[in-house]
Amino acid sequence: MNGIILLTDRRQTARPLPEVVAAAVAGGLRQVVLRERDLPRAQRAALADRLRGILAPVGGTLIVAGPDPLGGDAVHLRAAGPYPPPVFGLVGRSCHDETELGRLTTEDYVTVSPVFATASKPGYGPPLGPAGLARLVRVAAGRPVVALAGVTTAEQVATCRAAGAVGAAVMGAVMRAADPAAVAAELVAAASPAEVSS
């Protein structure tokens, strides 16, 4: 689990969500978290199938927010539970502080937020900033940490990587973009480990 993870929010898109995800995938994005929790299960499962179809040809992964993987094998759980986490091929969890990180057991990765102020969830806690992110990365003790909230630029992605995060989760920057492929490409490039010249 590294690089850029896209969180969906169909309410922010000017085009149908699958089109935006397809454009982001064309830009190099390979990991998508399906949110859209307000949809009925059947409709959400159909959307999950469609997004998996977009990701499969490039070896991408669809992660479903919540404990029901909707026919897949990857979920992203809230900090509140369930504990212990269900057993799937990939399990992530949202965390915001040391206490929540201390409850982790078998999760494969964790998102830490809010790193920066976010337009998607205004008033969502005081931002951790790079120093707070670095502190929580140390608390996570080797578990992959993905920075979340307010990440909209390549510079912010690079800052999160420098703080020890393996990548960043983005939503509004791609969901609202006129050119999701270009935005995704820029963020993915910033999240890639620097190549060592010989």
What does this entry show, briefly?
The protein has helices spanning 17-26, 41-55, 98-102, 129-139, 154-162, 172-175, 180-191, and strands spanning 3-7, 31-34, 61-65, 74-77, 90-95, 109-112, 145-148, 167-170. It is α/β, with parallel strands linked by helices and 198 residues long. Helix 2 (41-55) links the parallel strand 2 and strand 3.
Describe the structure.
This protein is of the alpha/beta class and 198 residues long. 33% of the residues lie in helices and 18% in strands. The protein is built from seven helices and eight strands; from the N terminus they run βαβαβββαβαβαβαα. The chain has helices at 17-26, 41-55, 98-102, 129-139, 154-162, 172-175, 180-191; strands at 3-7, 31-34, 61-65, 74-77, 90-95, 109-112, 145-148, 167-170. Strands 1-2-3-4-5-6-7-8 form an eight-stranded parallel barrel, surrounded by four helices. Strand 5 (90-95), helix 3 (98-102) and strand 6 form a beta-alpha-beta unit. The relative contact order is 0.18. The model has no long low-confidence stretch (mean pLDDT 93).
Radius of gyration: 16 Å
Global geometry? globular
Percent of residues in beta strands? 15-25%
Main sheet record:
8 strands, parallel, barrel
> What structural class should be given to the helix and strand makeup?
alpha/beta
Strand segment tally: 8
- Taking pLDDT < 50 over at least 5 consecutive residues as the criterion, the unreliable ranges are none
Return the average pLDDT rounded to an integer.
93
Number of distinct helices: 7
The quaternary state of the protein chains shown equals single chain
Distance between the termini: 27 Å
The largest sheet has its strands arranged as 1-2-3-4-5-6-7-8
Q: How much helix is in the residues?
A: 25-40%
- H/E topology pattern: EHEHEEEHEHEHEHH
